[in-house]
Specification:
Layout lengths: L7 H10 L2 H26 L12
């Protein structure tokens, strides 16, 4: 009896990644990371304590 695990883990991983819940959580994480980068770059370039996302001083 020979056990072939070459493609089974790939199928399981694909099934997990194709789950709609995982896709939604990944999209939320991506948006939060992008927002964090924007806020960090705004904070580095401005002299105010809190970054202003819209408008000017």
């Amino acid at each position: 009896m020979q056990i072939h695990l070459g493609s089974e883990w790939r199928k399981a991983l694909r099934r997990i990644l194709r789950n709609p819940v995982v896709e939604v959580v990944a999209a939320i994480v991506l948006v939060l990371v992008a927002a964090w980068f924007v806020i960090q770059s705004e904070a580095e370039h401005r002299a105010t304590l809190f970054p202003l996302l819209f408008g000017h001083k």
